[in-house]
Amino acid sequence: MLFVWNDPEGNPPPAEVTIPVIEKFNDGEWTDWVWNQMVVDTNCREVIDNVVDMAHFFYVHKSFPTYFKNVFEGHVATQYFDGVQREDVVHQQDAVAAADAPKFIGSESEAAYWGPSFMIDHLDHKFEDGSNPSVLINAHYPIDNNSFMLIFGLRVKRREGMTAEAAEAGAQRTGQGILTGFMQDVEIWKNKTRIDNPLLCEEDGPVYQLRRWYQQFYVDVADVTPEMTDRFEFEIDTTAAVKAWTAEVEQNIALKETAGAPA
Ligand SMILES: [Fe+2]
User: Radius of gyration over alpha carbons of the chain, in Å?
Assistant: First the structure.
């Protein structure tokens, strides 16, 4: 990977902003990187907004968040996510896997932006017989105020205790599932407009604090203020959302059963 540092003040990158090495690639067998890139015609802040967006996991990715927390500190913004499989949705990995393959049950993710445009997402897919780690890189650079180049790459760990072919096939299935999910985000970004003062509800998360964090990359270093970089933690209370979504999932299952029942 080649990292490019852009500083309008002309200073070199400070040592503490170095993007970390992903140590876990030394542990076990991983697929090769799969990279994609594309131009997205909107302002690149739209990508960043996803860091605090708990609800889109249900509506856009058809997953079911149960835990969601953000921590912003210095130049790093992190999202912690736990989710379970929705019982009214056939997960893509189950749809393409053999009928007797272990079922997908949920995912855990720790995704951090190291600066304004380079995210490392440690994403574990959990199956009945164990979890399948992966790493997703989500990076971009602005082209102008209304477009940016999106670059994303993925590696998946080949699981132990199975044949090399089965491990590779499983990793490829997981990889395809993750890329499909990522393209769901892309579809939203392509249709979003930069809004500086959105009207929020409680579960929308700390959008305004995230934007204070993000603003540190758009001012001279001397103008960076503590409100942009001080440690900030926020866990979204998912109780009300989980209750509503549980009812929605049950209703969807009931509707499917009614539709499938003989007249
Ligand atoms: Fe997303």
Answer: 20
